[in-house]
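Exam revision sheet. Question 4 asks you to relate a sequence to its structure. Input first:
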Amino acid sequence: MGVKAETVHHVVREPMDPEEEMKVTKYLRGEAADLGALKDKKLKGQLAVREDLYGKSAVAAAKAEKWLMPSEAGFLETEGLEKTWRIKQEAIAAEVGIKNWREQYDIVLPELGPYTVDFDLSGRYMAASGRKGHLALMDAEKLKLVCEVQVRETVRDAILLHNLNFFAAAQKKYVYMYDKSGKEVHCLKEHGAAVKLQFLHKHFLLTSINKHGQLHYQDITTGQMVANFRTGLGRCAVMNVNRYNNVVAVGHSGGVVSMWKPTNSAPLVKILCHKGPIKAVSFHPNGHLMATAGIERKVKLWDLRKFEVIQEMPGQVEAIDFSQKGLLATSTGSFVGIFGDFSGSQRYRRYMTHSMAKGYQIRSVCFRPYLDSLAIGHSQGFSSILIPGSGEPNFDSMVANPYETLKQRNEHEVHSLLDKLPPETIMLDPTKIGTVRQARKKEKVSKEIEEEQEAAVEEAKNTSLKKKTKGRSKPSKVAKKKREKVKNAKKPFLEQKTKEEETLRKKRKRITEENPLPVSLQRFARKGTVS
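Answer key, structure tokens:
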């Protein structure tokens, strides 16, 4: 019919508009492998069929996306000279539905603040902790209190763990774990007087930092203390997790941000971000952008792929947080500012502003997942405001389901435990995990070579030395000569071992240079098939 067909991964299909082309590209598994370098016809045919299957799957997924993801994120839009940051919360509440309208609330508890807030992965439940000892677990969907407890001592931070059933609080002397009824389950004395808590959901690791810079990792499934490091970079009061790779970032009083993983006693990265103490740290959901706030009244955005500053913004900021769609919230006193990157150039500009009641000193801000709202913990309690476009509009029930039943929650917990990742998988670039080979045990020396080496050493030890005059037969001289003989007896065996290791290294290097296939296909290549 004269219709020009395009080929993606060897799949012939009808022309698509640019938007559909972008969707297909998103679902493709990288670039197609160059099968022309393969001489094995059978292997070449098998991989060609597999590439066709990948292409068909990408096209089918792109066509089904409009049904799988029916909702789209919507931001504030203005006309003419209007500015989005001039729009008040009252005007937004008048235009939204009843469900979103309920996201605006202000809970006043002036005698127990200031408060910190934290959500679970689904955004359904919220943990609020007051400095004066108040702990509360709330159903944010129904605005219903699940439990609350007064511990009668200082509470510095509180976070939800893998689901509703448990939450942890950093109290005056120790870290405590509570269940959903408010009963104390564990007292984690190893953490000491922690100031910040974080939880790594994929690894089930509870992380804490105290003001002296002592960093702890504890596995909550076994109770084992996985790691305990002294950062040695000054006092700490700031800690956050990069959800992209589960690397923990710690802010120090010297202006340094250090990044850690539990299998390294030294920091992976140390960045001098500010000239004074770090006030807050947060990470973009894509894992490549970090925001830091310093006491010198500056907010800096860092590109973690190059470790360079890409933008600086003025402001005395106490707390910052990124939303699922990349909006950045900052707090200064009783004022909240929302910034967004709408051009795609990683240049953030002002999007919304909100001023709390006079005298409310904001301590923490936290975007609610899968909803367009921002929770604010302040000196008089905690509040919530509407931020259009901040949350991901479509949730994956296999990852986080805000409407899961008790049975689904229990099944999800079992699956999460079965899929728990070991601490060794935490690294700056998680894409390297697929290329890591299991460490091979050193090849044992054959029994014959061991026997020959032992026999040579024994012979050297039993060799009788000729007695000499003028003090050359002293016991110390004799012992020294015997050690030299033993060393000379071992030397041929050590040289042979070194030569074998060098030959093996050169062989591996030659194979790597000669093999043009991707790493994922190298295991299929036969010897002699690659020129």
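Marking note for examiners. The CA atoms of residues 281 and 292 lie 5 Å apart.
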